[in-house]
Amino acid sequence: MIVIAQGDRIRHFSIRPWVAALCGAAVFAGLAGYLIATGYLIMRDDLINAAVMRQARVQHAYEDRIAALRAQVDRITSHRLLDQQFMESKIAELATRQSALAARAGTLEPLLERARDKGLSGQVAPVDELPIPALRPGADQASLDPVPGVTAIADNPLFRGANAISLGAHAFAAPARPAGTTTVAAHGKTDRLAPAADPLAALDTVTSTLERVELEQLEQIDVLTRAAYLRRNALIEAAKASGLPVRSEPVPLEAVGGPFVPLDEAAIDEGFEAGLAELSEALDALEQTRGEVTAFPIAHPVPGRQITSGFGKRRDPILGRSAFHAGIDFRAPTGTTIRAPAAGKVVKAGRSGGYGIMVEIDHGNGLTTRFAHMSRLAVKAGQTVEPGQKIGASGNTGRSTGPHLHYEVRAGGKAVNPMRYLKAGTRIGNHL
Question: Long-range CB contacts (< 8 A, 24+ apart) of 288-293?
């Protein structure tokens, strides 16, 4: 109850509890609202400033991220362009080396032909087994997305020949993204790229193959050169052991040495040219020695035929008295082919007394051969013959008791034993 006294007048009011509680609540709510409003007005500027600063930090971080991403994109693009330029230069280098190898093979071909003619093809792989790469640069370059590389560096077998090694059809494509770089995915997350397939490894394979081919060419030249000298030395030694007066001397091959110097392109080019010159010199020397040796009558005039009468003293088959046999006789039925034992020039071809139909060949160096009792001729006087060339057929003409070949070798006009040269031919034959 509330009592109000004013002079003689007294008033009293009765307030119910719920009314008092309601009024108290209203007063408290008003007071709280006032305090909150006052606090908000006081702190509003601080809140606004904090929100602005937070927004600025987010914006700055985003802009920094964008700048970093742009720099990374530029760096990746630069790397891709550098990779593309490197691959293009690598392909151009491979094409140049391939052209050089093809040119070297063309230069080497005649010498290999000569080596085969000399019986040296068995020493190394013949020319049709020499690996010659067939590369071509890639197709025209296009846009940078994805970064273009080489669409095809080789579309045919790299080697040819029975023992060739083929790389097949390699298709090389430049990587769309360099391996090991990073890229940003959605929501600003950074992921490491998986390593991409590197075409440089394939290019390195082709490069190493070309280097191996270059070395094989040099080794082939070296092996052929050594084989030619070895063949020549063996031929000279066999000829001298057989008593043939050859003038050539063997070439020593065992003494080698020098400092180790790694090969480079210039060294390979110089080595190839020097090797070609040395191989040509070795083949020339072998050819000269072979010509010198084959000038002696060392080949068999009737291969496989049995000797029926030797050189020297014997009983004359017609008179029955002791006589000198100036040659050797071979059992040869009429018509058996007679071949020249060495190169030379026919000086006689026709009938000659007791020789019957006879051929005489001058081989130079004072050596001549005679073939008697022939049934027919295949050459004529003044004609040049080669070793093994047919000069006629055996028979029974002249002073003869039956079909056979009378074969003589004369040195300075004097008859010498043909067996000396036939045995030399047997010994030397493996080296010819």
Answer: 288/248, 289/232, 289/235, 289/236, 289/246, 289/248, 290/118, 290/235, 290/432, 291/343, 292/246, 292/247, 292/248, 293/235, 293/239, 293/244, 293/246, 293/428, 293/432
- Please, what is the end-to-end C-alpha distance for the chain in angstroms? 152
In tens, the pLDDT along 288-330 reads 888 888 888 989 999 889 999 899 888 887 887 888 889 999 9
What integer best gives the mean pLDDT of the chain? 75
Does the pTM exceed 0.90? Answer: no
Distance of CA 283 to the CA centre of its chain: 23
**Residue for token digits 């004072």?**
366
For 78, 151, 359, the CA distances from 89, given in Å and listed in that order, are: 16, 15, 71
Please count the CA atoms within 13 angstroms of the CA of 378 that sit on its side-chain side.
16
Q: Which residues of 306-335 are buried (b: 16+ CB within 10 A; e: fewer)?
A: eeebebeeeeeeeeeeeeebbbbbbbbebe
Closest CA to 337 of 373, 302, 313, 370: 302
φ and ψ of 207, to 5 deg: -60, -45
Q: CATH number of the domain at 307-431, out of 2.115.10.20, 2.60.40.1120, 3.10.129.10, 2.70.70.10?
A: 2.70.70.10
How many residues are there in the chain? 432
Please give the distance of CA 185 from its chain centroid, rounded to a whole number: 48
Q: What are phi and psi of 302, to 5 degrees?
A: -135, 80
Do 15 and 2 touch, CB atoms closer than 8 A? Answer: yes
Q: Do 272 and 218 touch, CB atoms closer than 8 A? A: yes
